[in-house]
């Protein structure tokens, strides 16, 4: 059984890796790099050709990376590739109001100067982060990349075999699904999901503006949903604007010029004149959590395990926490001589991540429901609450550390 040739025959002449990763977006490559650093051989399978993923032009899509996520990216050799394209988030201002009326006089400021570690996080465009992850994988030892889709998966006591659309098979000791909310890896394993829609759609774009943003992010809560204004390098900001499904559909159908006309009263004039930069996108919003993050020789990471409202910008950050946790659990198990794909080992990963994820999902869900309405009593309570919290430095500092991803049981890759 230790003979590689014999093992290849037993596997039907398929390629063999320690770990198979299905999905080559952001979490999949990050996990591959983290695992490769521990000596694991990894195969990453993605249906989209690498050239298409690498050659993406500016399209306005960007991510708010918490400080803990930046640390992980630095540890796996990615951050230095994108640091020059990143915008530090120095302050976050949270306010409440109505379109065209401006924010309430009560608002909640979070300033990075209140913690010792530096900026709470950075904004980075999708095109830079995606390309950096792919470049790092190209240079890493022990990572094989395959452009194909998975049509079937079989699990036995020795490992997992995936059949690809091309007819080729690949095998490994376990498989990790990083293939999004509609994860085929999860569905083929019989893992169901729990969740609901919010009746909201996110309108995502980038805007150029006359005045500098000074690294300040804004979260403006309006009755139909929040508008996040997130700083990018230069006089550019990314917006994530949540509206009711019907309204969002009508706004998405507008010309660029008309779209900006409905955005301006919501955006305000604090950054001067604004103009659209790049494409516009829409995403339906909902909460969805896999009923289990693990199955036999299988684990789920990122949106394949959990998808939540972007209200706190924690989607990718939660996925990178999964990456750090799974890489650490597998590495520690291997050092102890355990099978890193054994049920009790994978249970450690699930126990570590499921409570944290459920808590984050509950908080984002409750926040969205609390702020996405126009009830006058709730509005008064929200405004008073933000004013009180803004006047309590100790409590405010706790929220800042939470936003920076510095609370909870952090994986080693996310520690300073």
Keywords:
alpha+beta; 8-stranded mixed beta sheet; 13 helices
Descriptive report:
With 416 residues, this protein is α+β, with helices and mostly antiparallel strands. The protein is 36% helix and 33% strand. The protein has 13 helices and 19 strands. The strands form 3 sheets. Strands 1, 2, 8, 9, 10, 11, 17 and 18 form an 8-stranded mixed β-sheet that branches. A hairpin with a 2-residue loop joins strand 17 (294-295) and strand 18 (298-300). The protein starts with a helix and ends in a 13-residue tail after the last helix.
How are the secondary structure elements laid out?
Layout: H1 4-10, E1 15-22, H2 27-37, E2 42-46, H3 50-54, E3 62-66, H4 67-75, H5 79-82, E4 87-89, E5 91-98, E6 102-111, E7 121-125, H6 126-139, E8 143-147, E9 150-156, E10 159-164, E11 169-177, H7 184-188, E12 193-209, E13 216-222, E14 225-232, E15 236-244, H8 245-252, H9 256-267, E16 274-290, E17 294-295, E18 298-300, E19 306-307, H10 315-335, H11 343-371, H12 376-390, H13 393-403
